[in-house]
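Reminder to self: tokens first, then the designed residues, so the page reads top to bottom the way the pipeline ran.
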């Protein structure tokens, strides 16, 4: 297996155990791999591992695909992660207006979000490269995931989060897992700038999605959903878009699978932003001629990002998959979330952007009747319980507020009739 890090701007090459997240020129680094095995042989190997007894490869929906991840031998930091379900629910399909809709729920990962896929690989790399500590800037899910994997690996962890702008469920995880959590009096983008400065000057491994090994782990979401579908590609993969790590990773995964002979037809990627945090959507509307930076405001805190770090990689993914970018309002996101929640699945607000995006794209005629669609739910319902309470405390057709009653059976009977 041949692996190297290549700068996407100047083409410089770095060894795979380099702890750098970016090139000296400022460009993002891509992992370029040439596995010894390709085609049906590699696919059979992946499928055999799915039922093997080795928890490091079978129990993990990430390390099952290790030939396409991290080179060399050494410790693997795994919970395990991945193995997340594909759901189908009639109520959600009716809401979206599309019959062939499946939901890939990444909230079933160990810390409750898709971040675990990238973090298992990035923390494993940090451990193997003898990093003195790991760090990240976060709106919540990244910090929770990094803190958990760093604790397992025995690495010091430093988290930069915007003060007063993180859901308590996510902040609680970072604290519980032992990371030193710094509440920065600024927004996420300023937190990331500070974390990058710490990485450059203090030698700390930076584990945001600009880290190339994070992208390698996040690729496996696509590998796994294709494996779950018998390696039959859907027409669309729809994903919430904040810092754009998933958009970048999905495009990379699809390009690699096609080059390896594991994919005949490439699905189109639809990246969905919140309207109040939609710099990538603005760039897309202008043909990506200009990169925008905005002051992000949205109830979907996980995608409340105004200057996405993986912008350039994501542009490549959209172009190579003939993908699209759209934006939906907070009202659309929260309504979609209420539908997903009421179907017994549940998700955090940012996750529901993908379902709201499907509904919008169906209404616009972009997603056509008969298209097979997989929408990604990125995080668990309990990541942001405050959003649930707030939504159901308001007025609206989908609200389900708690009801106070006297301790009498007649009161119970009255409420039962109202169901």
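Designed residues (419 positions):
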């Amino acid at each position: 297996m041949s692996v190297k890090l290549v700068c996407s701007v100047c083409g410089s090459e770095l060894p795979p155990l380099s702890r750098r997240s970016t090139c000296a020129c400022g460009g993002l680094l891509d992992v370029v791999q040439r596995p010894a095995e390709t085609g049906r042989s590699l696919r059979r190997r992946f499928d055999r591992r799915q039922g093997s007894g080795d928890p490091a490869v079978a129990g993990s929906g990430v390390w099952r695909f290790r030939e396409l991840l991290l080179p060399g031998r050494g410790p693997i930091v795994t919970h395990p992660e991945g193995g997340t379900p594909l759901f189908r629910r009639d109520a959600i399909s009716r809401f979206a207006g599309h019959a062939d809709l499946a939901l890939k729920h990444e909230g079933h990962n160990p810390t409750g979000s898709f971040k675990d896929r990238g973090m298992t690989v990035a923390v494993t790399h940090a451990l193997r490269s003898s990093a003195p500590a790991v760090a990240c800037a976060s709106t919540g899910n990244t910090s929770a995931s990094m803190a958990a994997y760093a604790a397992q690996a025995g690495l010091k962890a430093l988290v930069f989060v915007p003060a007063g702008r993180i859901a308590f469920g996510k902040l609680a995880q970072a604290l519980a897992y032992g990371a030193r959590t710094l509440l920065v009096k600024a927004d996420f983008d300023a937190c990331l700038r500070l974390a990058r400065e710490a990485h450059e000057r203090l030698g700390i491994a930076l584990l945001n999605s600009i880290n190339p090994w994070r992208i390698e782990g996040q690729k496996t979401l696509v590998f796994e959903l294709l494996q779950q579908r018998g390696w039959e590609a859907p027409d669309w993969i729809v994903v919430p878009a904040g810092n754009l790590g998933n958009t970048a990773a999905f495009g990379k995964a699809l390009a690699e699978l096609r080059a390896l002979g594991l994919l005949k037809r490439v699905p189109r990627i639809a990246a969905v932003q919140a309207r109040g945090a939609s710099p990538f959507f603005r760039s897309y509307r202008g043909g990506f001629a200009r990169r925008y930076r905005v002051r992000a405001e949205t109830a979907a805190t996980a995608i409340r990002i105004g200057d996405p770090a993986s912008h350039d990689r994501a542009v490549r993914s959209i172009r190579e998959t003939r993908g699209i970018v759209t934006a939906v309002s907070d009202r659309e996101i929260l309504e979609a979330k209420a539908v997903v929640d009421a179907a017994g699945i549940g998700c955090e607000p940012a996750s529901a952007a993908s379902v709201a995006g499907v509904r919008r794209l169906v209404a616009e005629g972009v997603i056509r009747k008969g298209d097979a669609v997989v929408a990604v739910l990125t995080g668990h319902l309990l990541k942001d319980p405050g959003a649930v309470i707030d939504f159901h405390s308001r007025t609206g057709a989908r609200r389900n507020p708690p009801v106070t009653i006297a301790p009498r059976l007649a009161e119970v009977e009255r409420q039962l009739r109202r169901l």
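The CA atoms of residues 5 and 97 lie 43 Å apart.
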